[in-house]
Design goal:
By secondary structure, this protein is mainly α. The protein is built from 11 helices and no strands.
């Protein structure tokens, strides 16, 4: 009985001496809380939806203009058929026609008038569509390009604001701590608005608006420890996107010295009208997608704990 008790004691003591499993030490930031996880995902979801909507709008616009150009041909065919029906049912003596036949005849007249009116409007629209096509759909391409840069810009600000709101460690950054905000203005803002307020102030402090290409975004991302590199060809495409967007918005699409010097490989003449093609847009969409993927990799690297 005593031996059994000793054996039990020994077993119990041995269990206390068993070495604990060594937990891996974290090399990066601790795993983010649910709010931070959501804050990191949301900008990608919103940006993805907007990019898809922009691409769809562009394709429908191009297709629609082509259909408008071809619409008069279809209406001319319809007019020919309606005129034939109308001439084949001409009534010599209207006084002898019954009510049903009269109603049918009047319907044919009304349809003929409607087709004529639609044909006139369609021909006017077709002329405008042809003019747009002859200019290479420059307005459609320009507005798509401007919107593309705006979506990317909005993504960066949303991401920075969400990190600012949910990652308490980032708030200890010296550049952020030095930002001075009027107390009265600050207290009237909610949490998200405060983050955007800080981002705007921070943007001025790092001189983001004066940097070229993605440098304007990287200067902000660096503060949030999300800065990094990008393949040179995509970096160059995004520089083109930024600079061309500038002349479209501020120079009515005419090449200025800033664009000419920033993108010499485009070999643009000063004061010439910029011409954006479908291939250009495809290239810029690709560059934006690659940049988003690169930023997502940086986020995973920063916020995913790695064990030694």
């Amino acid at each position: 009985m005593k031996k059994a008790q000793n054996a039990k004691t020994t077993k119990k003591g041995a269990s206390k001496k068993q070495p604990r499993k060594r937990e891996g030490t974290l090399k990066k930031s601790s795993p983010p809380k649910q709010e931070l996880k959501r804050g990191l995902i949301q900008p990608f979801e919103v940006c993805g939806e907007r990019l898809e909507e922009l691409a769809t709008t562009y394709e429908l616009s191009v297709s629609g203009i082509g259909l408008i150009k071809a619409r008069p041909d279809d209406l001319w065919k319809l007019k020919k058929q309606v005129d034939q029906d109308l001439s084949g049912s001409w009534v010599a003596d209207w006084s002898a026609i019954d009510a049903a036949s009269l109603e049918s005849q009047l319907d044919k007249f009304a349809k003929a008038i409607e087709v004529d009116l639609n044909l006139h409007g369609a021909e006017q629209e077709a002329i405008k569509a042809q003019e747009m096509l002859s200019r290479g759909l420059s307005m459609v391409h320009s507005q798509t390009l401007i919107s593309l840069w705006a979506i990317l810009e909005s993504f960066i600000y949303m991401l920075a604001a969400n990190v600012m709101s949910n990652d308490t460690n980032i708030r200890q950054n010296e550049k952020i701590r030095r930002i001075k905000i009027p107390l009265v203005d600050f207290e009237t803002l909610d949490s998200q608005e405060r983050s955007y307020f800080v981002i705007r102030e921070l943007e001025q402090k790092v001189g983001a608006s004066y940097r070229k290409g993605i440098g304007c975004f990287e200067s902000l991302l660096d503060v949030f420890e999300l800065g990094g590199g990008l393949e040179e060809n995509y970096r160059r495409d995004l520089l083109e996107l930024q600079q061309i967007r500038h002349v479209l918005v501020h120079r009515k699409g005419f090449v200025d010295r800033q664009l000419s010097e920033a993108c010499p490989w485009l070999k643009l003449r000063m004061n010439s009208k910029i011409n954006i093609t479908r291939e250009d847009l495809r290239k810029y969409f690709k560059a934006v997608n690659e940049y988003l993927l690169e930023i997502s990799r940086r986020i995973v690297k920063k916020y995913t704990p790695q064990q030694e």
